[in-house]
Design brief:
The complex is a heterodimer of chains A (about 425) and B (about 160). Chain A has about 425 residues and is α/β, with parallel strands linked by helices. Chain A has 14 helices and 17 strands. Chain B contains five helices and three strands. Classes of the chains: A alpha/beta (about 425), B alpha+beta (about 160).
C-alpha cells in the first residue's frame, strides 16, 4: 500500500504507559482542540471513535494517487485500487483470524451485516414457527430485522433476560434452545451496559444442538482481541467507524459453507458471473454479496485502522482500557447521587449512569460546556432502559487514548451538575 | 460552531429552574375539550396538553383551564409549565398567535417590538437558542398546543 504507513506508531512493549498514551494521542489530530474554551475530552467512543493519521492518510492517498474502480479495468490505477482494497480484506481476515479472506464481506456496517443475514440466510432457511434467540441487551439493529422477518415468515423472537448487574441468565438461555431454534444472534459487548457476554459458552450450547450463532461485535472488536475460530461463531459483524476506521464500511464474516448456501442479498454489478436473458450465474463469495461499486476508500481506510490497532496490540489495549474503566467506575460510584447502570463483572470500557436530580440531556449540556463529549439518551437500546425503569442514561465510553486525568475532568463536570441541579 | 454564553450555566437561570422544580398546571383536568400529545422518539421526551374552553354567549371561546404534563429534561418541563401559565384567558386565536410568536423567538426570527412584552416570562426561554440541540426540547409542548388547536379548528369547521 503506497504511503499508507505514514505516521504509523512505533512498536510497543509491555503495558501501555502514560508516555505511550501521550504518543498515541498525537496520532489523533481531532483530539487537540478546545471545545467551549476547554480541552476536548472525547468520551463518546462507543458512538464513533476518532481516526488516527494513518487511516486519514490511507484514504487521502487513495484519492490523491490511486482512485479507480476495483475488479474492472486492466489499467494500472484499477490494479492498484484493487490491490489495496483486497489488502484491506486480508488485513481484516488476519485481525479476526478467519480461515479465508473470501469469508470477509464488506458491508456498510454492523446494521447491514445483521440485515444481510436476516434477509439472505433467514429468508432461505426459516419457516413459520421457527425461533431466533437474541439477548435482552441488543441494539435495535439486532431486534428489528428479526421482527420484520417475523411478520413476513412467522418466526418467533426469544429474548434471554439478564440480572440487575447486566449479566445474562444462562440457565434461561439453555432452556430456550429447542428443535424450533434456527439461529442465536447475540451482542458480544452491550453498548448501553458494557457487559461482555460469554459468547463461547453461548456458542457451545447452541452448537451442541446444531444451531448456528451470529455475533454482533460492533462494540467488542475495538477493545478486545477477537478470534472467530476460537470463539466458534458462525457469523460475526462489525463497523469500521467504531474501530478507528471510516464511516460507511464494515464487515460481515461468515463460515464459507454457510455463505455459499446463501442467496445474494442485493443484485447488480460485481456479484454476477454471467448474465443472459434466460439465466444469471452469481459470482463466488465474497463478491456474491458485494453488488455495485463498493466503498473502496472505506475498505482501504479500515485496513489501515486494523494495522494501527495491531501495531499497538489488542491485549495491551484491552488491559489499559480495563484499568481506566475500573478507575472511572470507582470514582462515579463514590459520587453522591450517581447510579451506575451496568455493573457486570466482565465488562468493557462503558460507564453508563443515571442521576435522579438531573435529566441526561441536562447533564450532557453541562458536560459539553466543560469540553466533555458523552452520549445521552436510550442508546438505541430502549428495552434495556425499560429493564431499569429509566428514560435515559449518560454514557461515557472509553478508548486507549483516554486518560485518568480525563476521567477526573468528567467527575468535576458531574460536580458542576450537582451544583446546578442539587 | 455554536458560541456559548460566558457563563455556561446561563441556560439554567432562575425562571427555568423555578418552573422545572415546581411545574405549574401539571395535574390532568377532570374534563377537557381537547387533548394532544407529542413524543420525541429520539430522546423519549413527551408532552401532554389538555385545554378546557369557556363558551360565554356572544364571545369567542377562550381557554379556561390548561394542563401541561411533560416528561424529560429541565427545558421541556419549564417550557410546558410556562406555556400553561400563559395560556389561560386567551381565545383560541390568541393562543395560536402566542404559539407563533414563541416559535419565532426560538427560531431566531425578527420579532415585532411589542413581542417581548407579549411573551412575558416566556422570554426566559430565549437563552435556549444558544444551545441549538435543545431548541426542540423547548418547542415540544408547543407542538402539542398547535396540534390541540388544529383539532379544535377541525371540530369547529365540522360543527359549523
Amino acid at each position: 500500500m503506497t504511503a499508507a504507513t505514514v505516521n504509523a506508531p512505533a512498536s510497543f512493549s509491555g503495558p501501555l504507559t502514560n508516555d505511550d498514551v501521550e504518543r498515541i494521542r498525537r496520532d489523533f489530530p481531532v483530539l487537540d482542540q478546545l471545545i467551549n474554551g476547554k480541552p476536548l475530552v472525547y468520551l463518546d467512543n462507543a458512538a464513533t471513535t476518532q481516526k488516527p493519521r494513518p487511516v486519514i492518510d490511507a484514504i487521502s492517498n487513495y484519492y490523491l494517487h490511486n482512485n479507480s474502480n476495483v475488479h474492472r479495468g486492466v489499467h494500472t490505477l484499477s490494479q492498484r485500487a484493487t490491490d489495496d482494497y483486497e489488502a484491506g480484506r486480508e488485513a481484516i481476515r488476519r485481525f479476526i483470524n478467519a480461515p479465508d479472506s473470501s469469508e470477509i464481506i464488506y458491508v456498510r456496517g454492523t446494521t447491514e451485516g445483521l440485515n444481510l443475514v436476516a434477509s439472505s440466510y433467514g429468508r432461505k432457511f426459516f419457516r413459520a414457527g421457527d425461533e431466533v434467540i437474541i439477548t435482552g441487551m441488543e441494539h435495535h439493529s439486532n431486534i428489528v430485522p428479526w421482527q420484520i422477518l417475523g411478520k413476513e415468515i412467522g418466526i418467533r423472537l426469544r429474548v434471554i433476560p439478564f440480572n440487575d448487574q447486566g449479566e445474562l441468565l444462562m440457565d434461561e438461555y439453555e432452556s430456550m434452545l429447542n428443535e424450533r431454534t434456527r439461529l442465536v444472534s447475540v451482542v458480544h459487548q452491550s453498548n448501553a451496559l458494557g457487559t461482555i457476554n460469554p459468547v463461547s459458552s453461548i456458542v457451545e450450547l447452541a452448537h451442541a444442538r446444531g444451531i448456528p450463532v451470529m455475533v454482533d461485535a460492533a462494540q467488542s472488536i475495538p477493545h478486545l482481541p477477537i478470534d472467530v475460530q476460537a470463539m466458534g461463531a458462525d457469523f460475526l459483524t462489525f463497523s469500521g467507524h467504531k474501530m478507528y476506521g471510516p464511516t460507511g464500511i464494515g464487515v460481515l464474516w461468515g463460515r464459507a459453507d454457510l455463505l455459499n448456501d446463501m442467496p445474494p442479498y442485493q443484485s447488480g454489478g460485481e456479484m454476477i458471473r454471467s448474465v443472459t436473458y434466460e439465466e444469471t450465474i452469481y459470482s463466488v463469495i465474497p463478491h456474491k454479496f458485494e453488488a455495485g461499486t463498493p466503498d473502496i476508500a472505506g475498505a482501504i481506510g479500515l485496513g489501515a485502522a486494523v494495522e494501527y490497532l495491531e501495531a499497538i496490540g489488542m491485549d495491551r489495549i484491552a488491559a489499559y482500557e480495563q484499568a481506566l474503566m475500573r478507575y472511572g467506575a470507582e470514582r462515579l460510584a463514590a459520587t453522591e447521587g450517581v447510579r451506575l447502570i451496568g455493573t457486570a463483572e466482565n465488562r468493557g470500557g462503558i460507564l453508563s449512569f443515571y442521576m435522579e436530580s438531573a435529566h441526561a440531556h441536562d447533564i450532557g449540556t453541562i458536560l459539553d460546556a466543560e469540553g466533555i463529549a458523552v452520549r445521552t439518551g436510550h442508546h438505541c437500546a430502549q428495552p434495556v432502559m425499560a429493564r431499569y425503569e429509566i428514560p435515559a442514561t449518560v454514557r461515557a465510553s472509553l478508548s486507549f487514548y483516554n486518560t485518568t486525568e480525563e476521567i477526573d475532568t468528567l467527575i468535576k463536570g458531574i460536580d458542576r451538575v450537582i451544583e446546578v441541579f442539587g | 460552531m455554536a458560541s456559548l454564553p460566558d457563563n455556561p450555566d446561563a441556560l439554567y437561570g432562575d425562571v427555568i429552574m423555578d418552573h422545572y422544580r415546581r411545574p405549574r398546571h401539571r395535574a390532568s383536568l377532570s374534563y377537557a375539550d381537547v387533548e394532544a400529545e407529542e413524543f420525541n422518539p429520539f430522546c423519549g421526551d413527551r408532552a401532554t396538553l389538555q385545554l378546557r374552553l369557556s363558551h360565554a354567549a356572544g364571545h369567542s371561546p377562550s381557554i379556561q383551564d390548561v394542563s401541561a404534563h411533560a416528561e424529560g429534561c429541565s427545558i421541556i418541563q419549564a417550557s410546558a409549565s410556562l406555556l400553561a401559565d400563559n395560556l389561560r384567558g386567551r381565545t383560541v386565536e390568541q393562543a395560536a398567535d402566542l404559539s407563533q410568536l414563541f416559535r419565532d423567538l426560538m427560531q431566531g426570527k425578527p420579532l415585532p417590538p411589542v413581542a417581548l412584552s407579549e411573551l412575558g416570562d416566556l422570554g426566559a426561554l430565549e437563552v435556549v437558542r444558544q444551545y441549538p440541540v435543545r431548541v426542540k426540547c423547548a418547542l415540544l409542548p408547543w407542538v402539542a398546543l398547535e396540534e390541540g388547536l388544529r383539532k379544535l379548528g377541525r371540530r369547529g369547521a365540522a360543527g359549523g
